[in-house]
Amino acid sequence: MGFNALLKDSCTFQVNTPAQDSSGQQIESWANVVALTGLKCRIEPIGGGLVGAPTKVYEDATHTLFLRKPGTTITTKDHRVVISGNTYAILLVQDLSGFSSVHHLELVLSLVT
Fold first, then answer.
1. CB distance 56 to 50 below 8 Å
2. What is the CATH number of the domain that holds 34?
3. For residue 113, what are the CA distances in angstroms to 23, 29, 73, 91, 110?
4. Range of the domain at 41
5. Per-residue pLDDT tens listing for the chain (113 residues)
6. pTM, whole model, 2 decimals?
7. Domains contained in the chain, number
């Protein structure tokens, strides 16, 4: 089975677009990224919640997201992802283009409650 056949889910990335409330206080606001809307992906839960990376351990990791590498850069600071009505913070973006013939990203996520 090829990589594309495993991408059974659909996701939409959002970008942080800070705004101000009526009193002038900065509030968090998010908007869908048109180029990153309706992407085919696969989300899987992480058992145990601990994910180790070369420079950090992510204790609050809940899921791993797999998707083809889009033409737009995805960052942990500026983006989050929505899948089936659930919102996830992006903890880590791993570009696996150089490690196989399949060019894809693996993102470590934390479910936002």
1. no
2. 2.40.10
3. 26, 16, 25, 15, 9
4. 3-19+26-111
5. 788 888 999 999 999 998 999 999 999 899 999 999 999 999 999 876 666 666 677 778 899 999 998 888 999 999 999 999 999 999 999 887 765 555 789 999 999 97
6. 0.84
7. 1
Token reading at 27? 């509030």
Contacts of residue 8, Cβ cutoff 8 Å, sequence gap at least 6: 40, 42
* Three-state SS annotation for the chain: CCHHHHCCEEEEEEEECCEECCCCCEECCEEECHHHCCEEEEEEECCCCCEECCCCEECCCCEEEEEECCCCCCCCCCEEEEECCEEEEEEEEEECCCCCCCCEEEEEEEECC
CA atoms within 13 A on the CB side of 56: 8
> Which residue is it, tokens 């919102």?
87
Query: Cα(5)–Cα(66) distance, rounded to whole angstroms?
Result: 12
Q: Which tokens sit at 70?
A: 């889009």
